[in-house]
């Protein structure tokens, strides 16, 4: 049975933590999500991209712009991860999200930067824009919508049939 959170006066099912992320990464994800929301974006965490890689956060804005945020919880996490450049093919802007004490100068200057903790975040450096083509944008928009819808359905019906979709 899914746990229930109260947001305002609305009961919303809480999704279970999947165990892949460290507590630090989860805190950064929460704060980065809040920062993105303040900039008019809604997020889908752990979005499986075409090709099988997972974007830590995928976000879509009111005008359909798509951003991907790669969360780095430590310097070692950044140093051993070489997959993030492939995310550019799936977004209009690519960001890193890190904790306040992360040495941001080691991050590539051609990416955006969000500094976040569990309570919020700030967009510190804007990412350069590399607009998706029409076909890729449509595919990513559908992927975001279908994944978000399936996760909501799974939260409402945890014994349902969508486990393979997620």
From TrEMBL:
Listed InterPro entries: MmcB-like (IPR009394)
Pfam families: MmcB-like
Protein name: DNA repair protein MmcB-related protein
């Amino acid at each position: 049975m899914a746990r229930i959170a109260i947001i305002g006066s609305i009961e919303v099912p809480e999704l279970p933590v999947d165990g892949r992320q460290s507590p630090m990464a989860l805190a950064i994800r929460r704060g980065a999500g809040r920062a993105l929301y303040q900039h008019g974006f809604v997020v889908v965490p752990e979005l499986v991209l075409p090709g099988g890689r997972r974007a830590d956060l995928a976000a879509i804005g009111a005008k359909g712009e798509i951003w991907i945020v790669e969360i780095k919880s430590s310097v070692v996490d950044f140093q051993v991860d070489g997959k993030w450049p492939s995310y550019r093919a799936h977004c209009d802007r690519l960001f890193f999200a890190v904790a306040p004490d992360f040495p941001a100068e080691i991050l590539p200057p051609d990416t955006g930067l969000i500094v976040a903790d569990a309570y919020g975040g700030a967009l510190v450096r804007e990412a350069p824009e590399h607009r998706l083509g029409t076909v890729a944008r449509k595919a990513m928009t559908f992927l975001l919508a279908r994944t978000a819808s399936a996760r909501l359905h799974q939260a409402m019906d945890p014994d349902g049939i969508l486990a393979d979709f997620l």
